[in-house]
Design brief:
Number of strands of chain B: 13
Helix content of chain A: over 70%
Number of strands of chain A: 0
Strand content of chain A: under 5%
Shape of chain A: globular
Shape of chain B: globular
Structural class of chain A: mainly alpha
Number of domains of chain A: 1
Largest sheet of chain B: 6 strands, mixed
CATH architecture of the largest domain in chain B: 3-Layer(aba) Sandwich
Number of helices of chain B: 11
Radius of gyration of chain B: 23 Å
CATH topology of the largest domain in chain B: Rossmann fold
Number of domains of chain B: 2
Order of helices and strands of chain B: EEEHEHEHHHEHEHEEHEHEEHEH
Strand content of chain B: 25-35%
CATH superfamily of the largest domain in chain B: P-loop containing nucleotide triphosphate hydrolases
Order of helices and strands of chain A: HHHHHHHHHHH
Oligomer: heterodimer
């Protein structure tokens, strides 16, 4: 275990500078700017949206439901799948380190960069939304804190899922997009306990658990039907841990056939 | 003594496709050439050897260890794959330092070892250029450099001379000889016989996933010499030359081709080569060129296994 931790740390340290220079990070940076850009354009062309209402509705729709899963998939899937796709995995697989360190170290680097970008995206969005001219109260911590926690927790969960997917399937982005937007989108709108199978449900539950009256009033996130905050946090943590453990086992045991 | 490689009934399939089959061999060490035509199973064998793949049946041990995902073995092993894949956004120096760092070297050691390896493959001047802008030969040298950078006991190189210009090729052969002389085991795959002969006399011949022969290059050559060889001769007057060659001992067939081409089959190649100049002069046939068509391993294998098909 100590060898795995040491190798994962090395992988993290060596991957971080490479990741920061990668085109994927540039792509996610551009994606992260989209909600703020849309908010800014909306506030310029329309005088109707109120800052708080706009921040809650737009934040949930753009940040939590679109940007977070998409950015997480783009970066998370790079952990293993990118090396397979680029056929560079051979070099890493013939190094004296546990193969799981590749997934764990790279995911840690990815998660750090992803969270920074998502935090930036959230902050820029809220700044842009605060320029809405519809009147009403200003955007405060009761709006920003639940939104930021959902975005960051979602980033961790989706990126871990994407990293693990990369160890199992050839096209993790495609499969991940299918899950995040088709399966989750479908299940999240079904009544009953089906929602328990979605990450989005636990992100909503986190917001509800924050006790923000604004979110309850605007987005309708109120107690009934949502899990307790501790349960949501535990479940999201379990998703991250289970994804990384399963992904690590798969990476350790799987053969990746690189063609010439 | 621990063998460098020991394979027993080794087999590997990709679905219905045979990669290697029933390979049993022992390689003590030194410099060894793994020869085979394209598709013979060389790369599959090497991937089994470095633990990138698991055997479908049988077993393989490298330096006494099972190779699949064996971190302990990878400290002692260097591998340059055939696939032309590197991190294009990194420089040659960064590539080596990165791989040395994930191998456990300190930053300082990684820097020092990377420079030393780049010097050995004569790539120091391009060390800080991005690999994406490298020629095929330069990328090949980066692949070799990363395989030797940590001074492994055993270096495995899959077609390392592919894409190299003559100068780089000569330098690489010198480097591999130097490694061998220094006690490093070197296993080099190639589909070109003379390339391997320049490097070593110990050759493993693979054909269609099986070991066809394991021995010294003269033994392999002797196998070849027992088979008729085909020689292509370009002449101004091939008909006159053909009549004269048919009288020569060992010549079993002569076929006229287009544009002055003469296709000669002989079981005594050396005699043909020795007597051809005199015959050509006598017949005023105007010989413009001669090539032995089995210079490549494809033809060698065709000769060796022709009867087995």
């Amino acid at each position: 275990m100590r060898a795995l931790a040491a190798a994962s740390w090395l992988m993290f340290v060596t991957s971080l500078p490479r990741l920061l220079r990668s085109r994927r990070v540039l792509l996610v940076l551009l994606l992260a700017l989209v909600p703020a850009l849309l908010a800014w354009v909306t506030t310029k062309i329309s005088s109707r949206p109120e800052p708080v209402e706009f921040a809650v509705n737009g934040g949930w729709l753009l940040l939590v439901q679109v940007v977070t899963p998409l950015a997480s998939l783009i970066l998370g899937s790079a952990a293993v799948a990118e090396e397979v796709e680029d056929r560079t995995l051979t070099y890493l697989y013939t190094r004296p380190m546990p193969r799981a360190a590749l997934l764990l170290g790279r995911w840690a680097a990815i998660a750090l960069v992803l969270l920074a970008l998502l935090a930036l995206s959230t902050w820029l969005f809220l700044v842009a939304a605060s320029g809405a001219r519809g009147g009403g109260p200003e955007i405060g911590a009761d709006v920003a804190r639940p939104l930021a926690s959902a975005v960051l927790a979602g980033g961790l969960a989706y990126s871990a899922l994407a990293a693990a997917l990369g160890a199992f399937v050839k096209n993790p982005i495609v499969v991940g997009l299918g899950y995040a937007f088709a399966v989750e989108g479908f299940l999240a709108n079904l009544p009953g306990r089906n929602q328990l199978l979605t990450v989005q449900h636990y992100l909503r539950s986190l917001i509800v658990a924050d006790g923000s009256k604004t979110w309850a009033d605007v987005e309708g996130f109120v107690g009934a039907g949502f899990v307790h905050g501790t349960t949501a946090t535990f479940t999201l943590t379990a998703i991250v841990v289970a994804s990384l453990v399963l992904g690590s086992l798969r990476v350790t045991r799987r053969e990746f056939v690189m063609t010439s | 003594m621990t063998l460098a490689v020991e394979a027993r009934d080794l087999g590997r399939w990709y679905g219905d496709v045979v990669g290697v089959s029933d390979v049993s061999l022992s390689i003590e060490g030194g410099i060894v050439g793994l020869l085979g035509a394209n598709g013979a199973g060389k790369s599959t064998f090497l991937k089994l050897l470095v633990g990138e793949l698991r055997p479908s049946r049988g077993s393989i041990r490298v330096l006494g260890e099972e190779p699949f995902a064996n971190a302990r073995l990878y400290r002692r092993l260097g591998f340059a794959p055939q696939q032309d894949a590197l991190w294009g956004d990194m420089t040659a120096r960064e590539t080596l330092e990165f791989l040395l760092r994930v191998s456990g070297s300190t930053k300082t050691d990684a820097r020092r070892l990377a420079v030393r390896a780049l010097e050995r493959v004569k790539l120091v001047e391009a060390a800080d250029r991005r690999v994406a802008g490298f020629s095929k030969g330069m990328r090949q040298r980066v692949r070799i450099a990363q395989a030797i950078a940590h001074s492994p006991e055993f270096v495995v190189l899959d077609e390392p001379l592919n894409g190299l210009d003559p100068l780089a090729r000569r330098d690489t052969l010198d480097l591999l000889r130097e490694l061998g002389a220094g006690g490093t085991h070197v296993l080099v795959s190639s589909h070109v016989l003379h390339e391997v002969e320049e490097l070593t006399r110990t050759i493993v011949l693979l054909h269609r996933g099986r070991v066809l022969a394991l021995g010294s290059s003269p033994e392999i050559r002797a196998l070849l010499d027992r088979r008729p060889r085909r020689v292509a001769i370009h002449a101004r007057d091939p008909r006159r030359l053909a009549r004269a060659l048919l009288d020569l001992d060992g010549v079993t067939a002569v076929r006229l081709g287009e544009n002055g081409l003469l296709d000669v089959e002989t079981s005594r190649l050396e005699e043909l080569q020795a007597r051809l100049p005199a015959i050509a002069a006598e017949q005023r046939a105007g010989v413009r060129g001669l090539s032995v068509s089995d210079a490549s391993l494809d033809a060698l294998f065709d000769d060796l296994v022709g009867g087995l098909r």
